[in-house]
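Q: I'm building a small set of examples for a reading group on sequence design. Run inverse folding on the following structure and report the sequence directly after it, with nothing in between.
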């Protein structure tokens, strides 16, 4: 294979600038998704909606991201990756702007579908660019920088977003994200190089992509990781989207105290996820996944049964919750990534990403229907949602043993 770029990178400084832009795009995209969950109490009050309607708001983004991500994977490889990423990010920023100006629930729901449709393809495109232009001996570091955006969004983005929402209203965080998105687009256009190497293949890209997708979907060995991914998502996204509304309504936290939950959870997760990854490499991904998942059951049970509790105790419980519930994803993704032959890994991961998005959206939607709010705004049946989460976790431990490592 020849050089992965039409115009190779000449300096480390140029490479760092590219990684910074990719990380910034990923950060804004991730923050747009995660900011929804702590703003749950604000949306439910502002739109006068119940838990089912809020669950639909959360799930609409994920399901749209999954569906359009799956469709996009069939044709995105036919274009320059730089232009694909910038067009996708423009559409995502436009969808976020629509969220900012939404006058009612229906318009906001429509805007979330638009943002999710474009946003669902951004992450895969960013990772594809890293694979194309970053040398293999620096690729792990580059991926780590970009993928740390979730923790950075939790530590920095969510507290700032909540502060803006508390001071200026819920529209303002989305307006800020949209403006930042539009401002970074011309910088990305200038910094990112044209990335057309994948178009130089002797095999027609569309035909190759279609054949790969067909093989991914029909291969019997792939069913175990796909089903595993569904229960992996249900293990977390039945509980997570309604954590903030529950903490405000049932546990007694104020909206001003919610940023502390995400600050400490994100800060600890930033370090523990890397540590869990090292443990998985040393002792085996399956073994570490099983241990972390079993341990995660305890904080889930505690969280869904909380009553009026002081902030320090809540912070301790929710931080352990985030460390373990998010930590299990590290060995889980490592197992799933290794469950496919390298030659069709790109198509496999596209399908897997779509399943992940749709499953997380379905989990939020189901949980929203189970939860009931009383006349005094208390949530009921959160412990039932927790039981679904625990069952999903336990079943995922069983399913993980059926994932065969292919390469």
């Amino acid at each position: 294979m020849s050089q992965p770029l039409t115009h190779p990178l000449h300096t480390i400084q140029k490479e760092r600038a590219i990684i910074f832009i990719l990380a910034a795009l990923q950060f804004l995209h991730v923050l747009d998704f995660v900011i929804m969950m702590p703003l749950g109490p604000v949306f439910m009050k502002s739109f006068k909606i119940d838990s089912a309607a809020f669950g639909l708001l959360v799930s609409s983004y994920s399901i749209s991201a999954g569906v359009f991500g799956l469709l996009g994977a069939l044709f995105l490889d036919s274009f320059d990756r730089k232009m694909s990423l910038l067009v996708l990010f423009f559409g995502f920023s436009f969808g976020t702007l629509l969220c900012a100006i939404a006058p009612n629930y229906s318009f906001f729901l429509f805007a979330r579908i638009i943002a999710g449709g474009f946003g669902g393809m951004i992450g895969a495109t960013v990772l594809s660019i890293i694979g194309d232009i970053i040398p293999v001996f620096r690729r792990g570091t580059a991926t780590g920088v970009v993928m740390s955006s979730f923790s950075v969004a939790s530590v920095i983005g969510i507290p700032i977003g909540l502060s803006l929402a508390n001071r200026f209203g819920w529209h303002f965080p989305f307006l800020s994200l949209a403006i930042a998105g539009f401002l970074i687009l011309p910088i990305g256009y200038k910094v990112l190089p044209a990335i057309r190497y994948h178009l130089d293949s002797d095999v027609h890209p569309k035909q190759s992509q279609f054949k790969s997708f067909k093989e991914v979907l029909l291969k019997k060995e792939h069913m175990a990781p796909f089903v595993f991914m569904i229960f992996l998502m249900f293990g977390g996204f039945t509980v997570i989207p309604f954590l903030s509304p529950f903490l405000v309504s049932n546990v007694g936290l104020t909206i001003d105290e919610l940023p502390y939950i995400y600050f400490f959870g994100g800060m600890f997760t930033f370090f523990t996820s890397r540590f869990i990854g090292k443990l998985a490499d040393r002792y085996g991904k399956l073994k570490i996944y099983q241990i972390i998942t079993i341990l995660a059951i305890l904080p889930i049970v505690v969280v869904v049964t909380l009553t009026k509790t002081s902030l320090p105790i809540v912070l301790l419980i929710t931080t352990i919750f985030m460390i373990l519930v998010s930590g299990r994803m590290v060995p889980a993704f490592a197992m799933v990534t290794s469950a496919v032959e390298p030659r069709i890994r790109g198509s496999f991961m596209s399908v897997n990403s779509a399943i992940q998005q749709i499953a997380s959206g379905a989990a939020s939607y189901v949980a929203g229907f189970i939860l009931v709010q009383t006349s005094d705004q208390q949530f009921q049946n959160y412990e039932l949602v927790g039981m679904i989460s625990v069952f999903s976790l336990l079943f995922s431990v069983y399913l993980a043993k059926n994932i065969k490592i292919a390469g």
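The longest strand covers residues 372-373.
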